[in-house]
Structures are given as structure tokens and as C-alpha cells.
Specification:
The chain is built from six helices and twelve strands. With about 260 residues, it is an alpha+beta fold. It has a single domain, classed as Fumarylacetoacetate hydrolase, domain 2 (Alpha-Beta Complex). β11 and β12 form a beta hairpin. α1 packs across α2. The site of magnesium ion has 8 residues, from β1, β4 and β5. One of its GO terms (molecular function) is hydrolase activity. Pfam families: FAA_hydrolase (PF01557).
């Protein structure tokens, strides 16, 4: 078992309380400016272990963030980030997302990968990712940074499990060989009005590149993807805000659509 420092415990308690109390908080680097990127991933890991025990949830996959050059430039970073999906984050098209359970949610369109075999290493390629993938599917990710006004540094957002909150997978599951994953167009609509358009090319050139990057990062920390994992490969457009009463749909070329309703 890993020993966690008092400072790390304080940060974990702070972020878990923000989620539990549905209350935004000041970013942790305001109080701990010396926090490093490896420490942020350590805090993320321990926070998720606490969540696993306290909420009795399972790890069900991995998510990527900051995979588009546009978002990296906006944040002044040159790196993607990863976090983990737990079973209470899985939501369904037929069950409304409850607005009051979230702080200031946004939603973004992504391509989900269903991993059919364990994948671990530090030289993993996009081709390896595609070989290990049974299906890809359309997905919506609801992000809900625990930080005030969604303002944070790279270290803050990693500690906060990359703003993860909920995700929904659509019903069209396709073999990755059956489509041109490099260039899937997507239209995101809110209440029937187009809100964003995007392409899978925005996800580090190809979503499988993004996942290969994450597997190599995980590999350097002695971790990897497991058979049955779901991986959210990264946003294909900017995230949009929504409120109670809003319906959001993402329509993808070759992959059908995925929808959510918020009550
Ligand atoms: O899933 C994501 O792309 C979120 C990454 C963190 C950045 C944000 O909260 O906007
Ligand atoms: Mg995302």
C-alpha cells in the first residue's frame, strides 16, 4: 500500500468534498504552488481509490483530456492528460442527467473505444490500440471541474481526475476496421440547434494516437488498459454548457448518434 503525505490527504479531502457537496472550490495550486505533475497523478490515483471505497464503485476505463491542439494552446500546455472512469460515472441515454447533482457541467462529443485485450507498454502504437479494440462507439462526456469557473493549471486538473463526471455511450458499436476513424465528422446540437461541429482528426490527428499516448504514459507508471475497459479518446469539439431541461445530441459520420437529456 502506498503512503500518502498529509498534504496529499488534505488535497484529496478538499476535492472529494467539493464533488460531494456540489460546490466549486479554488484551485489547489493557489495553496500548493509547488505541486508537480507526478504528484498530481499520485493525488488523482489516491483520490480514485478513496472514491472506489467510499462510493463502492469499480474502475471501468480511462479518459483522455486536452487532446486537441486548440485546447492545449488555450491552456498554454503541450500535453494531453488522462484520468479514469469509474462505474458511477456511466450514464444512459434513457436516464436523465440530474443538473442539481453537478456544479457547472459541460458536455463534449468523443469516440469511445471498447478494449478487447489487455494493453500495456511504453512503445505502444496506434496500430496496437486498433488491434486491441473490439468496437468504437459515439459518446458524450459530461465534464464538471470542481474548480471555480473551470479555471485551473495542468496540475490542478490532473489532481481533479481531469474534470470527469459522467459519460454516455450511444448504441451504434462498430469495428474500428469498418470506418475511417481518422476523419469522422460530428455535429453537436442543443435543443435541436447546432452548437458545435468537429472531427476526429482534432484528437491528436487520430483518436488511436491519443490512446497510444495514454497507454505509454500509463505504462511508465506500471499500468495499462484491461480487457473490457472503455476509453474516451478526447473531445472532438469545444465542450458546451447545459442546464436542466436541455437535450444534447451528437451525430457522427459512420457512427450514428448519442443523446442526453438533463432534468
Ligand atoms: O475531458 C476533457 O477533455 C476534460 C479535460 C480537462 C479540461 C476541462 O475540464 O476542460
Ligand atoms: Mg473529455
Amino acid at each position: 500500500m502506498k503512503l500518502v503525505s498529509e498534504k496529499e490527504i488534505e488535497i484529496i479531502n478538499y476535492l472529494l468534498a467539493a464533488e460531494q457537496n456540489v460546490c466549486e472550490v479554488i484551485k489547489v495550486t493557489d495553496d500548493f504552488p509547488e505541486l508537480t505533475l507526478p504528484q498530481a497523478y499520485e493525488i488523482q490515483e489516491q483520490l480514485l481509490v478513496r472514491r472506489q471505497v467510499e462510493k463502492d464503485v469499480r474502475f471501468i476505463g480511462v479518459k483522455l483530456g486536452l487532446t486537441s491542439k486548440a485546447k492545449q494552446e488555450m491552456m498554454g500546455v503541450d500535453k494531453a492528460i488522462y484520468g479514469f472512469l469509474q462505474s458511477d460515472m456511466l450514464a444512459f441515454e434513457w436516464e436523465a442527467i440530474q443538473y442539481t447533482a453537478l456544479i457547472h457541467p459541460k458536455v463534449e462529443p468523443e469516440i469511445a473505444f471498447l478494449i478487447a485485450e489487455d494493453l500495456q507498454g511504453t512503445n505502444v502504437t496506434a496500430a496496437d490500440v486498433l488491434r486491441a479494440t473490439k468496437y468504437v462507439a459515439p459518446a458524450l462526456e459530461v465534464i464538471d471541474s470542481r474548480y471555480k469557473d473551470f479555471r485551473f493549471t495542468l496540475v490542478d486538473v490532473i489532481a481533479d481526475n481531469c474534470s470527469s463526471a459522467k459519460f454516455i455511450i450511444g448504441s451504434t458499436w462498430v469495428s474500428p476496421d469498418a470506418i475511417d476513424l481518422e476523419n469522422i465528422g460530428m455535429v453537436l446540437s442543443k435543443n435541436g440547434e447546432v452548437a458545435q461541429t468537429g472531427s476526429s482528426a482534432a484528437v491528436l490527428g487520430h483518436p488511436a494516437n491519443a490512446i497510444a499516448w495514454a497507454v505509454n504514459e500509463l505504462g511508465a507508471r506500471g499500468k495499462g488498459l484491461k480487457k473490457g475497459d472503455i476509453v474516451l479518446s478526447g473531445a472532438m469539439s469545444e465542450a458546451i454548457t447545459f442546464q436542466a431541461g436541455d437535450a444534447v445530441t451528437a451525430q457522427f459520420d459512420s457512427l450514428g448518434s448519442v443523446a442526453m437529456y438533463c432534468k
